[in-house]
Specification:
The protein is of the alpha+beta class. It has two helices and three strands, in the order αβββα.
Length: 82
């Protein structure tokens, strides 16, 4: 029966670790992370659970002759935030 006490302690430790992980995840989810493109023309903001909450594009980033540049700037800002 001695092994059962050990098992009980292990289960208790697992529950404590799970509660701590849940609390840590809630703390992370409440934080925001902001990333920018290298030239600061695009800014992206995310929550800790990776939901985008804001995307700011400065007018000078929009070049109708080069839409790929804007896409690259957005990707850079998003990747910088994540």
């Amino acid at each position: 029966m001695r092994g059962m006490g050990n098992m009980g302690n292990m289960m208790k430790q697992m529950r404590q670790m799970q509660k701590k992980m849940e609390a840590d995840q809630a703390t992370l989810n409440a934080q925001t992370f902001t990333g920018t493109s290298p030239d600061d023309l695009v800014t992206a903001t995310f929550t800790g659970d990776r939901k985008m909450t804001d995307l700011t594009i400065k007018p000078e980033a929009i070049d109708p002759d080069d839409p790929d540049m804007l896409a690259d700037l957005v990707l850079a800002a998003v990747n910088n935030a994540l």
